[in-house]
Amino acid sequence: MALIKVKEIIGTSPDSFEDAIKDAISQLSELRENVTGLDIIGATVEVNDGKIVEYKVNAKYAYRWEKELNK
To answer: What's the pTM value of the predicted model, to 2 decimals?
Structure first.
């Protein structure tokens, strides 16, 4: 039996929202196996002196929880 668990992650980039999404996926690949999906739930920018200095995406990700159940 497999359960799906949902958590949130934030990806960042100084260049673009697309790169911030790639950052979130990169973080996930290091932290979790069995990731089944990513849902972008928010996007923000950090501004300094009238210029965008960082793009941020807040995302929910789902993963199969079966390994943790078997412990």
So the answer is: 0.78
**For residue 38, which of 67, 55, 18, 54 has the smallest C-alpha distance?**
18
Q: What is the pLDDT of residues 13-53, one digit of tens each?
A: 999 999 999 999 999 988 887 888 899 999 999 999 999 99
Q: Which helix (H) or strand (E) holds 34?
A: none
In the Cβ-directed half-sphere of 64, how many Cα atoms lie within 13 Å? 8
Q: Among all chains, which residue has been given the structure tokens 């973080």?
A: 27
Secondary structure (3-state) at 64: strand
> Does an H or E element contain 28, and which?
helix 17-31
- The count of structural domains within the chain is 1
**Domain holding 57: CATH number?**
3.30.1660.10
Joined together, the tokens standing for residue 19 give 């790169």
